[in-house]
Amino acid sequence: MVGDMTRIVAGRAGGRRIAVPRAGTRPTSERVREALFSRLAHDGVLDGARVLDLCAGSGALGLEAASRGAAEVVLVDSARQATRVCESNARSLALDGVRTVTARAESFLAGAAAAPCDLVLLDPPYDLGEADLAGLLRLLARRQDPWLADTGVVVVERSARSPEPEWPDGLVRVATRRYGETALWFAEPGDGAVGPPD
Questions:
Q1: Burial zone of 73 (CB within 10 Å; 0-12 exposed, 13-18 middle, 19+ buried)
Q2: N or C: which end of the chain has fewer CB within 10 A?
Q3: Which CATH number fits domain 2-22+29-190: 2.40.30.60, 3.40.50.300, 3.40.50.150, 3.60.15.10?
């Protein structure tokens, strides 16, 4: 069930190792996580945040957020093997406010939002089709029973060779970062033209 290990980069659980499911996941590298969370911390996104980690795999992204001050983190993955690893990792790190859900991201987002999120981390398999990704983003951007707080941030991780995600009405891309084979796309609630990449 458990394959390699990775580690939490910083915060209360900084330096602690966590397990990675043996198959079916692609953990975000420590370098990319450090860059991502340094930006989010600089922007004041993490402290006391409600965080949703979709396609969570080992839970490394959501657990990094919890380590760095997020108040509530929900780890969602369709594979029971992955959510078992997420549960084990959360227990071993003793981070409060973390829960796991075994569900497809689309099914989870189609349900009721308990409360709007300050941060949504979306790291789907690289082979997820662009239309399917666009469908997930449309669900995130819904205005009735919203998933995103008015000042919320969405981060999409894709292959650097993938095209830019198709942003739905209600989400505006605000930044792009590339790290080797990985691209991070940042978006926020809003209307109007997508901003230039920076």
A1: buried
A2: C
A3: 3.40.50.150
d(CA 133, CA 130): 5
Q: Take residue 182 and report the two structure tokens written for it.
A: 């990985």
SS3 89: helix
Helix 60-67 vs helix 30-42: angle between axes, to the nearest 10 degrees? Answer: 40
The CA angle 154-45-148, to the nearest 5 degrees, is 40
This prediction has a pTM of 0.92
Work out whether the CA dihedral 6, 9, 12, 16 comes out positive or negative.
Answer: positive
- Name the one residue in this structure whose structure tokens are 């990775």: 6
- Tally the residues of the chain: 198
Query: What pLDDT digit, counting tens, does each position of 73-104 carry?
Result: 999 999 999 999 999 999 999 998 999 999 99
